[in-house]
# Entry
Amino acid sequence: MISTTPLTTPPAMPPDRGVCTNLPEACGLAARRQPQPLTDGAGRCSECGSALMLPAAPAAAASPAAARRWLLPVLALLLVLAALVGWLLQRGASSRAAPAEPSPPLAAAGASAPLLRLHGSNTVGAALAPALVKAFLAREGYTEQSATPTAPEELRIEARRPSDGARLAVALASHGTSTAFASLAAGQAELGMASRPIQAQEREATKALGDLSAEGSEYIVALDGVAVIVHPSNPLKQLTLAQLRDLFTGRTGDWSALGAPAGAVRLHARDEKSGTWDTFRALVLDKQALAAGTTRHEDSRALAAAVAADPMAIGFVGLPYAEAAKTLALADGQGAALRPSRFTVATEDYALARRLYFYVARDAQPLARRLADFAVSDEGQKVAQTVGFIGQAPEADPGTAVVPTDVPAEYRRLTTGAQRLAVNLRFRPGSDQLDNKALRDVGRITRLLERDGAGSRQLMLLGFSDDRGDRCANIGLSQQRARAVAADLSTYGVRPAVVQGYGPAAAVASNDTEAGRERNRRVEVWLLDKPPATPVQPFACGQAALSTR
# Structure
């Protein structure tokens, strides 16, 4: 039984030793009533941290008057000890019930603000972001979820974690890419959604959050491609972006102007709220107005069905929805005409391919950053695939890659019999620094080699540039970029067998626009079964630039 003698003792009892006041079953020193040093009449147990008190004086030494004198203080102390023990037991039970790493809340309990807010692009926010959020929350243990539209282009996802009863809310507002950066700057969102990269003025407006274009703040979460479709009987096989723009702005109104049978062109387009429309408007119309009289559709399947039933029709849909309609190949400037496919969109060689983004502040809330990290993970990229976008796993080409005709003979020799990976590594303008997507792609390439047992195969890196400036300088820059990729891969223990640069050869896009020049600045990645039989020499500036041999 624990003694209840108070710390204030008669002078005959020097206050230099005390015993632990904890329960005997909770502390070994308390059970043994082992004396411990006191300082100025007070102290704490060296084992459990509970208060120390002097042991009671022997009963024979205490007179009846002394006992009465100390009765009230002893009772008061007993009440204090009882309250302390009850609090300790309650705290222990709570700690045993709590999860090891609960998701930290972003708002105080009972606050009206959502716990996690995503603002920005409708392309991202309509289907991709909700799917990523739901998969992420499920991985975090929030398996009880509900989604409720709260306003046009707005959604609230409520989630509960059964293991501990924790709740989270995620609010998505998809009112356009520009709202992502305005909301981040105003502190009204923790994560921005965008269907284009951040612009210079937006970087300036959000500089208090760090450089949002930097690695760790800019996340490419998926790739998007738009298919241009016509009736199966239409003899056209391809269009340039300029021809497509003239059709949808009304400058070209009859099919005969393009070599097809005469007849008025009937245009079909997605509605204003559609992310597919947002892509088409940005990459084709270039701020020009859509032709009057265009039939608008809320549903891609309905649009594709209308085009497939009308020989005079043309429209555009996301890749999964082309169905019975015929897809056209598209050419951007001097680039080769390519049809949309998972491969041509994944390499970003297709003219209507683009990147989709998440943006988070440098000091983002942990939950927002974990969501962004999940989105670019292999698991997150599978989610992107399930909702119709193109994931970023660098799969090997199944044999459909088209080798351009305007390439050096050595390029044709090296790539014959090789497999191209569904990825192009690109760079920051005017430098050999990998952009944020390429930095992650290097890791994805390494995981592919490890996972698929392809480590015994040889890697080949072939670099290209735009055509601005001196040709010899561009060849040197393309070689330098290929070597930069090789150096990054070497940190993972991967040693490419071929590292070569070909300057402005084999352009995939127009060099007349910044977007086109950015796509031409790339390093292609190929897999070889064995090293080339003939050693590869650096591509000399004096060599003939192009050859069809």
